[in-house]
Amino acid sequence: MARVEFRQVRKEFKDDHKGTFTAVAGSDFVIEDKEFVVFVGPSGCGKTTSLRMIAGLEKQTSGDIVIGDRIVNDLHPKDRDIAMVFQDYALYPHMTIRENLSFGLKNLKKPKSYIDEQVRNAASILGLEAMLERKPRELSGGQRQRVAVGRAIVRDPQVFLFDEPLSNLDAKLRVQMRVELGELHKRLGATIVYVTHDQVEAMTLGERIVVMNHGDIQQVASPKELYASPRNMFVAGFIGSPAMNFIDAHIEGTQVKVEGASFTLSDDVLQRLSAYQGKRVILGMRPEHIFGDDVAPNIPQDHMLQARVQVVEHLGSENLVYFHIGSRTVTAKVHPETHAYVGMDKTFVLDMRKAHFFDPETEMAIGREENSYAKAE
């Protein structure tokens, strides 16, 4: 296996009508040998373009791409020792599963004994032994996805590339395949680069996650760090479900004030916010850190506010309660036994120990130690 490195990689597309469009803007990062790294972000953020540049399917405008100890800028995809799994499976419908698995190796003129061994190994790993003589149309979506993964495994590449491989599966199959891909990585000890728009996939699969937006890398970190210490408001709002609440606030003395309430801050938080005394900030609160007062953990009494319930969504294991603080709609993810109904004046408790603060102009986190390229623990 091998590490993958981007050295100031930039990709621009030219459009006769719109001029030059920057898809990836000067990326610098390293994917370590045997690491599982996920690129995540909204549509058009540059994640798939980054993957296609690693594969050699797109040529970077500038910068270097390194796989192992080779700069691969000018290497053809077949010479980069990578294998790619596409979201539409890309199986040959007229071939059996055995023929699909062996097709790439036959093109590489590998010996028959080697091909047979690789196909047997891949089929065993993925539970495909009983399906080798079937055609793709005879398989379920999940089974076809396994075949697509198997076709990559038989290549025994330095790097596996996955381009939204689960997007065509239903919710139950996606969960199952996430588990299988995680186990596959542990078994193969492979370097895997995985692209998805689904932050749940990213958080459950990635040892590190590359969060992208408008062609720029916003943060590279472990799932734990992205959740607990987002670098800016984009990352904070993108990671987590439901999304983080952003509330207009002011720092005054030892308190942060929002419309209708004030909350006392700890000394260490006040120290981080010292440059914002008397100024506006954006208070970030995750929905799971807002509670109903009737089913709340041991949180200081001055962390409470009262608001009128606008909407309640009953989800079984939890409820989502929506209310307003000023002009902002706020979401609380509360215990299902929390008493709340539409139109009720309800007391909510905000766990300020878990609060985030952002500069309203730059949207960057305030007082956060820069560690955006941290490795997973």
TrEMBL record:
One of its GO terms (cellular component) is ATP-binding cassette (ABC) transporter complex, substrate-binding subunit-containing. It holds the Pfam family ABC_tran. Residues 4-239 form the ABC transporter domain. GO terms for biological process: carbohydrate transport. CDD domains: ABC_MalK_N. SUPFAM superfamilies: MOP-like, P-loop containing nucleoside triphosphate hydrolases. Keywords: ATP-binding, Nucleotide-binding, Transport. PROSITE patterns: ABC_TRANSPORTER_1 (PS00211), ABC_TRANSPORTER_2 (PS50893). One of its GO terms (molecular function) is ATP hydrolysis activity. NCBIfam families: PRK11650.1. PANTHER family: MALTODEXTRIN IMPORT ATP-BINDING PROTEIN MSMX, OSMOPROTECTIVE COMPOUNDS UPTAKE ATP-BINDING PROTEIN GGTA. This is Carbohydrate ABC transporter ATP-binding protein (CUT1 family). The gene is ugpC.
